[in-house]
Amino acid sequence: MSSTAGFVLGVLICALAWSTGVAGEPAHQVVPEGAAAVVNGAPIPRTAVREIVAGVAAVHGDAQDPSRREEWERSALESLIDFELLYQEAKRQGVSVSGEDVDREIARAKQKFASERDYEKALSERGWTVAGVRADTERSLVVQRFLEGVLWKNVRVPPEQVEEFYNRHREEFRHPAQVRLRHTFVPIAGNSAAAWADAERRAQELRQQWMMRASGNQQENPTEIFDAEDWGWLGRDELSPEVEQAVSKLQVGQVTEPLRGADGFHLFQVTGQRGSGVIPIEEARAKIAAVLLKRERERVREALLEELRRKADIRYR
Known about the structure:
The structure is a single chain. This protein has eleven helices and nine strands. By secondary structure, it is an alpha+beta fold. Strands 5-4-7-6 form a four-stranded antiparallel β-sheet. The longest helix has 31 residues, at 281-311. The protein is extended. The relative contact order is 0.13.
């Protein structure tokens, strides 16, 4: 499947816009009106194809280009067929989810809306029903559980494969001079001059505590550690001019003066410095493993889909 089709499948899963047909109906039937295809008896609604294309067009533009739109429609339909095949295979292997699982997923989706009314309005605008969303959510969770718990259960990336990748792509891990930063933020309570003064005072107190801790004169405060965020290694050109200027002359352990932002003060502590060079394998290992795992999972998924397509009765309209 092309990268475009892969992207469309991702849009599909997020939008819950796939077919709600039931597998197991008699095969070799005529593709019904309103369906773009039939997969082992399960219709793929043309409206689902159009909805995905509309989502892709909103991201990429070129909605009026006939050739691009035709390509998106083909990719959308093939992705919908892939999803249907995965769902049918999951059900064949006995994968299921509970009503509680579906309820939790729908509740998570509702959190993106200000109110229940806004959620229902969004459904109405898309022409979706509560029952339809529930059915689509069940299907998406079944496929997700099948992929994670069955198909990819034993997919692993051995350490030697990570090391081989690192050695073959070593030049790609070169980096410029970098600084490692720790960041925290002190918000203001209100927008008065007194509120700003209080926030700056608290930021200065925290700055002194950080510097004393770095010198070994103070025990670490677990709350402060929790509130601080490790920004990792960054090149100077990755920092805003204000932050770059503030940290450029600091040594390891030192902390910037409070930097005023739109709604509070920022503090940055330099926790490491290094010149240009190559990222050590131990630092790169987790990211390399994640990339290789994603590739292997995609290969396994594509192999299964190729097999399922060979066996399937797929009719196009």
